[in-house]
Specification:
The structure is a single chain. The protein is mainly beta. It folds into 3 domains: about 10-115, Structural Genomics Hypothetical 15.5 Kd Protein In mrcA-pckA Intergenic Region, Chain A, CATH 3.10.290; about 120-180, Ribosomal protein S4, central domain (OB fold (Dihydrolipoamide Acetyltransferase, E2P)); about 190-240, SH3 type barrels, CATH 2.30.30.30. It is about 5% helix and about 35% strand. It is built from 2 helices and 19 strands. The protein has helices at about 45-50, 60-65; strands at about 10, 30, 40-45, 70-75, 75, 85, 90-95, 100-105, 110-115, 120-130, 135-140, 145-150, 165-170, 175-180, 190, 200-205, 220, 230, 235-240. The strands form 5 sheets. A 5-stranded antiparallel beta sheet has the order 5-4-7-8-9, with no helix packed on it. A hairpin with a 2-residue loop joins strand 8 (about 100-105) and strand 9. Helix 1 (about 45-50) packs across helix 2 (about 60-65). The N and C termini lie far apart (about 45 Å).
């Protein structure tokens, strides 16, 4: 009889390349459960606690810490050690007074320390949008969230200011809409994939390519050090208008 459902185990060698684990020391690692981020773009909570934060020496110790409700993700207590944590998620350990945001770097997804007002919001990219009953707009975000935008006049396109690949600033944990950052020239963005992953800067040009889907359009960014980098819209994540609304690691650091 064939297998029913997805695999429940994961060997270390084929695990995502950016996980900070020793590939040949042990055979198995933590396989994330289905959640807001796919396996190739997330880190299980147990690996974050044990290997990235160093709060535990073993997986068993990490499970105990998580099961006791000491870790919050996006303002919500998560007690599942296999919970997938991904791009722009906010990880908080209240007992230690520490908070981190998951950001892309040249070495993959890493935790960037944050404090103050930054711990109270999250940035989410619009991956898709649909019109629901009543003519209202439902925005589908990169972390699996759905935000309903109610419009007074569904027949008036002027009210529809949202476009795919724009960024929303959401409050945590209530998910209230705080701001809308458009993907346009002059906006500040960070690259989330490709060979220039982790580079951030101002968008100086968006070039449309004939016969190519919008997500594959070419984007040119100017980093704070003056160097220019190229990527595509698929890997472009807006984090501010003229300046970023979140703290970012220096270009080139991991």
């Amino acid at each position: 009889m064939g297998r029913k459902g997805p695999k429940r185990h994961l060997k270390r060698y084929p695990a995502p390349w950016f996980w900070p684990i020793k590939r040949k020391e042990y055979k198995w690692t933590v396989r994330p459960v289905p959640g807001p981020h796919p396996i190739e773009r997330c880190i299980p909570l147990a690996i974050i606690v044990r290997d990235m934060l160093g709060l535990a020496k073993t997986a068993r110790e990490a499970r105990i810490i998580i099961k006791r409700g000491y870790i919050k993700v996006d303002g919500v207590v998560r007690k599942e050690p296999k919970f997938p944590v991904g791009l722009m998620d906010v990880v908080t350990i209240e007992k230690l007074g520490q908070s981190f945001r998951v950001l892309p770097t040249p070495k993959g997804l890493r935790l960037h320390p944050i404090d103050g007002e930054e711990t109270g919001f999250k940035l989410c990219r619009i991956e898709d949008k649909t019109t629901v009953k009543g003519g209202h707009i439902q925005l589908n975000l990169h972390d699996g969230r759905n935000v309903l935008v109610r419009v007074a006049d569904p027949t008036n396109p002027v009210e529809d200011t949202y476009r795919t690949l724009d960024t929303l600033k959401l409050g945590l944990p209530g998910q209230e809409l705080l701001d809308h950052l458009k993907l346009e020239e002059g906006a500040y963005a960070i690259i989330t994939g490709g060979k220039n992953m982790g580079v951030h800067g101002r968008i100086v040009a968006i070039r449309e390519l004939p016969g190519v889907k919008r997500r594959r359009f070419e984007v040119e960014l100017e980093a704070p050090d003056g160097n220019r980098y190229r990527t595509i819209l698929e890997y472009t994540f807006v984090v501010g208008r003229e300046e970023p609304v979140i703290s970012l690691p220096e270009v080139g650091s991991a």
